[in-house]
Amino acid sequence: MTERIPVVRATPIPIPRPSRAPEPEPAAHPVRRIMGWAAGTALVLVVALAVAVAIVPAIGGATPLTVLSGSMEPALPVGSTVVVQPRPASEIAVGDVITFTDRSTESDETRIVTHRVMEVQPGPAFVTQGDANNAPDPGLVQAADVRGVQWYHVPYVGLLRERLFTPPGMYFAAAVLLLIIAAYLLVPRTVTVPPDARRRR
Asked: Chain-wide mean pLDDT for the chain?
């Protein structure tokens, strides 16, 4: 009698393959991101200021002027840009801030003054005074000397505008712009960030 030998089927055991380590992923360089944000913010501010102190006055037939003294503080701080718009003298009232040519100086020279109307007299002529002054201006302001009435003002922009739109100011602005562009180009576009670091965020 022949003895049967049992047949045992072997079950294949899967051999785990070594997993590939995830490759580092490139990310935008943080310095480049900060510079891009700063450049974008600066551009928005420059455009907004240009609209406020140049484009809008040009469209409205107004004139931007720089406040050089503190006689109208706190309403008009030194260094502000005040935008004045022409208005018929008959429509100027007490409380309006007007810009006029001051001819009351002892010398033959005249100056441009922006003060508030305190009283309207026949003519019309105007008694004016700076908000920070203790007494009215000497002499009356004649209607022919009024250059305009305050439309609006932009604080602390006038001195920047006065200094920037000069040859030294333009050279300085161009130099700063070139330095920013050079630094932006020299900084690598991306930086390699390990995957583990991305998971921990």
From this structure: 81
Helix (H, G, I), strand (E, B) or coil at 168: helix
Q: Do residues 118 and 46 share a domain?
A: no
Predicted TM-score (pTM) of the model is 0.66
In a domain, 14, yes or no: no
Give yes or no: 19 in active site.
no
Q: Look up residue 110 and give its two tokens.
A: 């005249």
Residues 5-26 have pLDDT tens digits of 665 565 666 666 666 655 555 6
Same domain, 77 and 152: yes
What is the DSSP code (8-state) at residue 131? Answer: T
The verdict on residue 31 lying in a domain is: yes
Whether 79 maps to a domain, the answer reads yes
Q: Is the pLDDT of residue 125 over 60?
A: yes
- Nearest CA to 145 among 122, 124, 167, 118? 124
Q: Which of 19, 69, 71, 80 is catalytic?
A: 69
- Whole-number Å distance between alpha carbons of 4 and 6: 6
Q: Is residue 3 part of a domain?
A: no
Percentage of the chain exceeding pLDDT 70: 73
Residue 100 belongs to a domain with what CATH number? 2.30.30
Q: At what angle do helices 167-186 and 30-50 cross, to 10 degrees?
A: 150
Q: Label residue 177 left, alpha or beta by phi (over 0 means left) and psi (-120 to 50 means alpha).
A: alpha
Element (H, E) at 47: helix 30-50
Question: Domain total for the chain?
Answer: 2
Structure tokens at 75: 């309403």
Token digits of residue 149: 């009435």
